[in-house]
Amino acid sequence: MPADKFVWDIADLDATDLDRFGGKGTGLARMAAQGLPVPPAFVIGTDAYLAYRDGGGKLPDGLKEQVDAALGRLEKATGKSFAGDGSPLLVSVRSGAKVSMPGMMDTILNLGLDVNSVTRLAKISGDTAFAVDSWSRFWSMYSDIVLGLDSLLLEEETETMREEAAKKCTKDSLNSFENAVLASIQNQGEVPPPTEPRVQLDHAIKAVFDSWDSPRANTYRNHHGIPDDLGTAVVVQAMVFGNLNQNSGSGVAFTRNPITGVHELYGEYLSGGQGEEVVAGTVTPASLSEPDAMDPGLRKELIDFGATLESLYRDALDIEFTVEDGKLYMLQVRPAKRTAAAAVSIATHLVEDKVISESDALGRVTADQVSRLLRPKFDPDALEAAVKDGALIAKGIGASPGHASGSAVLDSDRAAERAATGEAIILLRPTTSPLDVRGMLVSQGIVTGRGGAASHAAVVSRALDKPCVVGCSDMDINPDAKTFGVDGRKFAEGDKISIDGESGDIYSGVIPLREVEVEGGALAHLLEWADTASKAKVWITACNVDEAASVVQRKAHGIGVTPLRELLVSGGVVDGFIDAVGALSADVSASSDKVEKRFEEPTYDVCRAFFEASAGMPVDIRLPNLASNECRRLISDWPSLSPYLLLPLGAPRLVEAFLRAIGSAAKDSGHTQVTVLVNGITDVRELCAFRKTAERIGNMQAGAVIRNPEILHSAEELLLDDPVLWVDLYELIRTARGYPAEILFGDEVLEEYVAAGLLSHHPRAALYSLSRRLLANLLEASDKHSGTRVGVDLGGAPRPSAIADLYCAGFRNFTSPLHHFESTRLLLGQSGNDKSADCR
């Protein structure tokens, strides 16, 4: 293609070149090629936008001449005239980027009218009101989009002259209306714009180009990860009129229900209206679900066209259409935006219909959609009862979706202390900063009095996948007084509240959560395909008896890297362990009454209950590491502990007591697949010593959780006796970088740091080169040891790119939190499908 050719008719452009012609232009080309009724159009490619941007907002040389030539071809195709004699040719001017951004980009309709052509349009149509209405609609859009003015004010100030022109449609009345428009524009501080349609077209093209860089478009792209340098094409198309008469109308249709995924016509139709009114939501149209919403013959034709396009696109589609005097025209087609439930349903149904393959279906659903679909939700009956009882106390901005309940705590340090005892916490703060991350990490949800959807609290909550409500300006949050209140209602720290991170609603009291069923539905089929594609084994990190039972129902490969500390907390017996640590710290020779007997039997009880709930599934259980951040929060006098206790095997009495309790619990529960993991080791000798102790005391398999790059330098020695090894991904990243947890999970800080060019990539998005090399060495060594099991503990919400990295490196064992189990399986299936990935 010549570099200086900017304009292409839809009949001639390459419909596969989305980068250049955008989704709208290529969609029109594909529909026209199928013989569907599409008004003639031409497309100004994204290369023209790039030249416009690089030229400082000046239309590139040659573009005007090419547009003139394309207008001539439109005139010939329609038998109409643009700004000349004869039947007026009116055009729409729309954006058309590669990636659809609904509602973000600009559109101008009915361009091509002036005083003379309005008169001719009225005569040809036989309807003066229609002609003047079309002109008035153009001026409203032009003033809004091109001039950036208040279109409603313009409509109000010109209403009298518009009504007069619609009645008479004389040259004088039309001139008076035009003068009123120009005066209103001047009153709003703008120089009166040109009235010549050809000049207006150039200005409209510039406005569409400029809309690519509008604040709302930039925000949308940032949120959805769309590159800024794509640019937008411009589609100029001959108008058809939904507002011509009552046999006309405009609508938006979906080939499948975008909410449920059901294969049915869904959408809206506005009789006697134009498409922009439907899309913008400025009027209330009729639902296409109703048989009498539009003419039955046209409805059937629309369904048939949709089926043709579905077979072409192999996806559920969003179609914009117009009916002009009883004839249906197709104006746009694109893959439909859909809910998480619909995405899963549509993908699996398309496989059942043999439209796409199982491999294709995995690429049609995102991990975020799976997570949203499966998040526990408030029990509907309990929520309804709570609302009736006046439990709704405040409303803010929903910043991170999900439902949560817990005790309101107004300080991050206090939140960490209370959460360490097993209490569910909702952190309330006037606003948050990186200093609050430790409280955010342990909370079920976060609420702030100030801030918006891009605030620190919102950004970090989304990174942690925790429900968050921000901007609760009506709520007085007083951390010093440990109180919060709304409209005279006072609450104290510790009071129970529930939050909805999507709607922004905050309720007093605990609203029970209900788990979402997975088995037997469309999602279960999708995940089976993912497992087949990845051939990976996904474990779940369960932290209490209830979660162990859920793991059995979820059919995970096993229970991986369960922290014994969490079992003690959830079982309400952690105080005995804390007392034993204190006694041993004060006196290494303290009696067994003060040490072992304080926690060994309670540990046996909670472990036996846990093993019985696991129904014989493999269980890997991790011993507490007193040097960890979790134990720092758990033990109030942690700073005064004897230093030797902070070493992985520095307190043999604690280790041996835990091993006795776990071994006895496994034996008495009949559980034969328990592996005990030592945490935080940095030398192979530590692992060897731990294995010998585990075999001597509990006759159990032993392994380790790898959290430090140092030990990976000894991969061959580490694997000599075929141990079980789990790599704690985020701890490995943190120690390799030397970051505190507040930085690693403070995405806002890291995003800015990466954007400033100070890091080559986000630390949580991809493996650091050192970590990559060391993990590759570990996997290479494990290939020589068939009895070794090496896996990755994914910790919090895994980033897709990090999982793809690990999969390509060769890892096939993963453990994730319960609520990320299904999304992890999907991501692994997508990685297994990615034939282009640079895998080992």
Topology:
Blueprint: E1 7-9, H1 18-33, E2 41-44, H2 46-54, H3 63-78, E3 91-97, E4 107-111, H4 115-125, H5 128-145, H6 151-168, H7 171-187, H8 197-211, H9 215-224, E5 232-238, E6 249-254, E7 266-271, H10 275-280, E8 286-287, H11 296-313, E9 317-324, E10 327-335, H12 340-352, H13 358-363, H14 367-374, E11 377-378, H15 380-388, E12 392-395, E13 397-400, E14 403-409, H16 412-419, E15 425-429, H17 437-442, E16 445-448, H18 456-464, E17 468-470, E18 475-478, E19 483-486, E20 489-492, E21 496-500, E22 505-508, E23 513-514, H19 522-534, E24 537-541, H20 545-554, E25 559-563, H21 564-570, H22 574-586, H23 596-613, E26 619-622, H24 629-634, H25 652-668, E27 674-679, H26 684-697, E28 701-706, H27 709-712, H28 715-718, E29 724-728, H29 729-737, H30 741-744, H31 747-755, H32 769-782, E30 789-793, H33 800-809, E31 813-817, H34 821-833
Parallel strand pairs: 14-15, 15-16, 16-17, 24-31, 25-26, 26-27, 27-28, 28-29, 29-30, 30-31
Antiparallel strand pairs: 1-2, 2-5, 3-4, 3-5, 6-7, 6-9, 7-8, 9-10, 11-23, 12-22, 13-17, 14-21, 18-19, 19-20, 21-22
